[in-house]
Amino acid sequence: MNKYEVKDMALAPSGHRKIEWVKANMPLLSALEKEFEVTKPFEGIKISLSIHMEAKTAYLCKVLAAGGAILSATGSNVLSTQDDVAAALADDGISIFAIHGADQETYNRHIEMCLEQKSNIIIDDGGDLVSMLHNERPDLAEEVWGGCEETTTGIIRLRAMEKEGALKFPMVAVNDADCKHLFDNRYGTGQSVWDSIMRNTNLIVAGKTVVVAGYGWCSRGIAMRAASLGAQVIVTEIDPIKAMEAKMDGHSVMTMGQAAPLGDIFVTATGCAGTIRMEHMEKMKNMAILANAGHFNVEIDMQALEEQAVSKKEMRNNIMGYTLKNGNTVNVLAEGRLVNIAAADGHPAEIMDLSFAVQAMSAMYIKDNYKNLENRVIDVSAEIDDVIARRKLAAWGIEIDTLTEEQEKYLNSWKL
Fold it and tell me: What is the model's pLDDT at position 1?
C-alpha cells in the first residue's frame, strides 16, 4: 500500500481534472505512457522525485508509474504544491508527501520520507534530494544508481559537488538539454512569469520599466515577453558576453544600483543570492513590484527586508507590501519565492511536455547505463534530444527535410 501525507483526500477529484487537462495537451508524455504500459521499462525500480507538485509533474509521475516504477514523491517548493493534485496522486496509489504552505521542518521531513524507500533513481528539481542524501541521510543513498536534475540552480550545486569530488552517484543535467533549456527556460518562463505577475497585480505592463536581473535563458524569455507587452526593459548582468547579448537584443544594460530608481517591476532569475539587496530597495520608487523567478527564495534579500521594514501588510493575495524607513513601499510577490509557480500554475503544458520527456528518457538512460557511469554530472545525449524533437514535430503535424546522399557526402568530406 502507498504511504502519503497530503492536506485533504477529499480534494482528489479536482486534482484528477487538472491532470486529465494537461494530459490532453502533452502528446509526448501520452505516447510514452502508452509505450511504458506495454514495455514496463521501470518494472520494480524505485524512483523518488522532488518536484513542483502540480498537474504537469503529477502526470510525469503517472507515466513513470505506468512503466512499472515504485514511486515516492514530494514537493520542491512549499508554495508550488497544489493540494488537490497531491491528493489525486495519493488516490492513484502513489506515495506522496506534500502540503501547500508547509513549514521548513515539515518540508524537510517530507523529503526524508520520500527517500526512505531507498530509491534506485532520483529525479530532483533544485537539488534538495541530493543534498539530503549527501548531508543528512547518506545511509539512504546506498541503492541509488543515479538521477536527473531539472533546473539550473540544482545543476550549479551538482557541479560544485563534482568539482570537490563529493558527488556519490551520476546525475544527468536535464536542464542543459536543448529540448529543455531552449524551450522550458525561455518560452515557458517568459510566459508563466508574466502570467503570474499580471494575474496577481492586475496591472498593465505596457509603458512600464521592467528590470530583469540576469540574462540566461530564463531571463531572456522574461525580457523578451516584457518587451512584447510594451515595457521598456533594463537588464543587469555580471557576465560581459551576456550583457552584450542583452544590448544587441535591444535592452538597456546597467548595474542594479543604476536600475533601482528607474524600475517599476523587478524580476530576478540569476540563481544567485542577494541579487536585490536593501541598498537597492531603498532607492526604488514607491510601490515598486519585486518578483523572483529563480528556484530558491534567496535572490531578493527577504531577511533584510523583514528586519528593516517599518511595517508590512498584505496588499492583495500573494502580494506583501513593505514600508521602508524612507516612507516608500515595495511590493513582493509570493514571499520572494518562485513567482510563476508559487503564485500561478507554472509553465504551459506543451512546454513541460518537452522537459518531462527528457526527464523520462534520461531516467531510462540511468537505468540502462549506471554500471558504466562515473559519479559526475552527465550531459543529455544528442540522440535523446533528436528523438524528442522529432516526436514533438510529428505531434504538431510538421515535416522537415532530410539530407540527400550527395548532401551527406558533401558535409562529411573535407575535399572540395
Answer: 56
What does the DSSP assignment read for 61-114?
HHHHHHTT-EEEEEESSTTT--HHHHHHHHHTT-EEE--TT--HHHHHHHHHHH
Residue 70 to residue 224: CA distance in whole angstroms: 41
H helix intervals, 229-373? 240-248, 256-259, 278-281, 302-308, 339-342, 349-369
pLDDT at residue number 416: 66
Q: Please state, in angstroms and rounded to a whole number, the distance separating the CA atoms of residues 258 and 247.
A: 16
Structure-block grid coordinates of residue 70: 515504485
**8 Å CB contact between 101 and 128:** no
Architecture of domain 4-180+347-395 in this structure: 3-Layer(aba) Sandwich (3.40)
Task: Please state the domain extents for the chain.
Answer: 4-180+347-395, 188-342
With a pLDDT cut of 90, the percent of the chain lying above it is 96
CA 399 to mean position of chain CA atoms? 30
Q: Which three cell numbers stand for residue 138?
A: 547518506
* Alpha carbon distances (Å) from 64 to 2, 185, 359, 414: 15, 23, 10, 45
Q: May I ask the CATH architecture of the domain 188-342?
A: 3-Layer(aba) Sandwich (3.40)
Q: What does the radius of gyration of the chain's CA atoms come to, in whole angstroms? A: 22
In whole angstroms, give the CA distance from residue 199 to residue 196: 5
The edge-to-edge listing of strands for the beta sheet with 4-5 is 4-5, 95-97, 70-75, 46-51, 121-124, 146-149, 171-173, 377-379
pLDDT at 153: 86
Q: Is the pTM of this model over 0.85?
A: yes
pLDDT tier, 152 (very low <50, low <70, confident <90, very high otherwise): confident
Between CA 123 and CA 108 the distance in angstroms is 16
pLDDT tens-digit series, residues 81-118:
999 999 999 999 999 999 999 999 999 999 999 999 99
| pLDDT of 283 strictly over 70 | yes
Beta strands per DSSP E along 224-308? 232-236, 252-253, 265-268, 288-292
Per cent of the chain over pLDDT 70 is 100
Contact 97, 4 (CB under 8 A): yes
4-180+347-395 and 188-342 agree in CATH topology: yes
